[in-house]
Amino acid sequence: FAGAKQGPGTHQRVSPPQAPARKPKLKALTDGPPKELKIRLIKVESGDRETFIASEVEERRIPLEEITIKNTASEIVRACKGARLKGKFKESYLLPALSVKPVLTTEQPIPREKLNPPTPSIYLESKRDALSPVLLQFCTDSKNPITVIRGLAGSLRLNLGLFSTKSLVEANGEHAVEVRTQVQQPADENWDPSGTGQTWPCESSRSHTTIAKYAQYQASSFQESLQQKPVGKIIKFGTNIDLSDHKRWKPQLQELQKLPAFMRVSSSGNMLSHVGHTILGMNTVQLYMKIPGCRTPGHQENNNFCSLNINIGPGDCEWFAVHDNYWEAISDFCEKHGVDYLTGSWWPVLDDLYRANIPVYRFIQRPGDLVWINAGTVHWVQAVGWCNNIAWNVGPVNSYQYQLALERFEWNEVKKVKSIVPMIHVSWNVASNVTVTDPDTYKMIKHCLLQSIKHIQILRDQLVATGKKISYQSRVKDEPAYYCNECDVEVFDLLFVTSENGSRKMYVVHCEDCARQRNPNLSSVVVLEQYRMEELMNVYDSFSLVSASTCFLNVNKQEQS
């Protein structure tokens, strides 16, 4: 399941990216965009002669606090230059006046029967149903935290046998599998180590094996079950199996192209397809091999992105899900029980949630069922039978998804947790490559770009004012986004680079704060600029709201040509 990557039983720490290992080309830049002097020609008549005199036009400088997304990039840059800020510019990338989250009343006690709401379940009768735009609207509706699409594999004639244990062993039996050792117990219980009470922490130890060896374990576990072994035994869960290699898993990945566009691992309307590099398990497929009792602990997906999970079978899985609206209440429970909400491993005690007035969706996922986990949904899963699952994330370009992703990006920075999705980098790429037709989504992305320009221009001016040289080094194809080596925050455009002397010279990226902690005057730090300000200004000014009807007409023209 896609989110397992961030949970502590399954947290994968991505090593910090480093600046390219080649020696930086140092090329000094002029300070900001090209300067121009606007001249107005005034006609002067004298007798029978006409002459012109040149008059300089002084452009009005808008105060920085009055700048909005209605202003041009040039006006933003001019306002930044006139601001004369002291210290670090720390404004949020979020648009404070706009929230598209649904209002869910939590003050009145919810009757017990409504604390277990029915899970929206869609039954598809044909391929046409699966490809209907109504399906996308329903799944991404902010009021629907989770949707089960029953029998999707049948209606699309997906050959899920390609993901069966037998097929996987035949295709790549020696492929690596991460193993989580857990205690088998009922899905609605989580006992403390002494076995005397229910608790939230849900620890597991990690090891590694291969697909072939886990397949043997899966089969022998089934044989043992016929002898009625008691609950409470130690079990092993094969998790986070990477299926990203297109050569090695070609038939499997090709089969998933039959899915509707909004569900595919890669599509133009998926923000994660505009990252520009691989994020394992998010914009690639991961596989999970299970026996009864295997658990994916509670979590929200990385940066609150949507995810999909298909049960290959032959057994079932049991799911629990809670709307994003209640994540902070669940985080508080984690804190009370001494487990970190973002990076720890936890399994909610259902009675705690019910007493706190938190509705929990609970349902069975059968073989061939696809579960759509909407943005921000808190969820946890347990295998009922012997089964395999495949999962990945998607980022529909809508306002609810974008708002939740950017909120978590900023919350991660507060909590000093790495945002697996580099949201500033993604926002610029989406603005460059995606046609946006929804006004709220447009406003949010445009505001993020506006804040990004402010951050960059103000920092740039401060560096130049102190005599710090900025060297331009453009990005290359498939170059990853950068994160600070110390604090894991995303570092966009202006990279503070130091060289580390080891067996071979390595270049390491830092954010400004961490670079100054190491070296207050930045004397041994090279500042690299990856985009010229004019490039970003052009993207900002070109990014505009397109009417849905215009977009529809263009699509039709392309289809007919």
TrEMBL record:
Residues 1-34 are annotated as: Disordered. It is an enzyme of class 1 (oxidoreductase). GO terms for biological process: heart development; inflammatory response; regulation of gene expression. Histone demethylase that specifically demethylates 'Lys-27' of histone H3, thereby playing a central role in histone code. Demethylates trimethylated and dimethylated H3 'Lys-27'. Plays a central role in regulation of posterior development, by regulating HOX gene expression. Involved in inflammatory response by participating in macrophage differentiation in case of inflammation by regulating gene expression and macrophage differentiation. Pfam families: JmjC, KDM6_C-hel, KDM6_GATAL. Residues 248-411 form the JmjC domain. It comes from Sinocyclocheilus grahami. Its cofactor is Fe(2+); L-ascorbate. This is Lysine-specific demethylase 6B. InterPro entries: Corepressor-Demethylase, JmjC_dom, KDM6_GATAL_sf, KDM6A_B-like_C-hel, KDM6A_B-like_GATAL.
